[in-house]
Amino acid sequence: MKKDIRKLKKDIRKLEKDIRKLKKDIRKLKKDIRKLEKDIRKLKKDIRKLEKDIRKLEKDIRKLEKDIRKLERIQRVATKMIPVYCTVLYAPQQRRPNEEKEEFREKLSDRISEVLRGDIVIVAGDMNVYSLGLE
After folding, report:
1. Cα–Cα distances in angstroms (integers) from residue 109 to residues 19, 30, 63, 79, 112, in the given order
2. Does residue 56 register a pLDDT over 70?
3. What pTM, to 2 d.p., does this model score?
């Protein structure tokens, strides 16, 4: 009987030690979770900032496109004697998604279709012909 009691006491001490270790592990895990939550909040904040920057860049691009169209109209008036239509293009690179390349082709086609028959068209820029299937 005494032997059983000693064994039980020993088992209890071992269990208490295991419980202390588990509690310590839980505290560490909680600390790690708080750190991860903090990192997630920071990442979300960074994402919101990037999204805001992207919206600003998109707005700037639309403004630049509008300014280019104005300059093209001014250029058209300035070259009234010999109608010349100039545009600078930068085609998407070969590794870009096909949708982006198709969008570029459509924009190019739209630009060219705006030109009156008999006008001179000058297209310059980086055309990345291999990515557009024009090789």
Report:
1. 73, 59, 21, 23, 5
2. yes
3. 0.43
